[in-house]
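Q: Can I see a sequence and its folded structure?
A: Here is a first one.
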Amino acid sequence: MNLKLFGEFFVTLLVIVDPPGMVPVFLALTGAMPAKARNRAGTQAVLLALGVIIGFAVAGQTLLDYLHVQLPALQAAGGLLLVLVALQLLTGKTDEPTDAAGTSNVALVPLGTPLLAGPGAIVATMLFVQRAHSADEYLILGGAVLAVMATVWLVLRFSGLIVRLLRPAGIEVLTRIAGLLLAAIAVQLIADAIFAFVQLYAPRL
């Protein structure tokens, strides 16, 4: 087993996904939910992220080539989506009661994607897949993805302890802070995408 490849990909993907950094946003979006619904949302988000990352690992480059889409465009789209979520957090719209459909939507978007399975995670996965040259190495990369997603699930699963400590007032403050941080992440994603586009197309001008 190529432990070096496993370690490199595991650490890279774990840093990009940033499970501790996900907790404030996760609690901001699900803090008002019952514990059972919050745990279900976390599980759905992780499963969706796992499916998206594996899907792009297998056929991501082929799909982007077919659609004539560059990776910076995918990054900018993720940034724009996060801007919308950040505005909801900052304006307090997530404090309104949500039904089952809303809960499912929160788990899928933005938690599953683009927060967990975002442009950074997708690009990193595609780059490591390009480095793999055998079935064993592909299995190693798949194991690393599973290990990272399991780590994320554990962090989200036990975030309920933080909810009990913060109480509603603390969750409201955390929601506003998470919205500000998420807005900053979104702006950075868009700025990186613009810079990548400039580098990509400037030599052709």
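Q: Show me another, different protein.
A: A second, unrelated one:
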Amino acid sequence: MYETLLVPTDGSDQAAVAASHAIDIAATRSATVHVLSVVDDRAFLVLDEDRVETVREDLRANARDAIDDIATSAAARDLAVETATDTGHPAECIVDYASDHDVDMIVMGTSGDEYETNVVGSVSQRVVREAPTPVLTVGPDVEG
């Protein structure tokens, strides 16, 4: 049933905790773990044009580092791992990736900010609503 798991990461501690859960699930099923990090291009709207490329490269480097950390953990458990980066709105990119790669489940963290109005983070909330597959969200109080 769950042969392909997608783990989106922004490099946060919460994404790492979610990745830990995804790796445990994948290990019980010998599933392939896809790790995706999205450079949110909306951040460029407020930058001076001459700074955009420098910031973009910094964000891409951070995305690669976040991916590498999770990929290393999954590989240490003898799991097949595929990695990717994308640029755009994170929720859209995550949903598109899941569709394009026939992902069986998405496992992602949620910050839980402003819980009175937003039970899960805005990216997580949108992914839950739009994903073509089940989404397991790991809240901020869950430990890895």
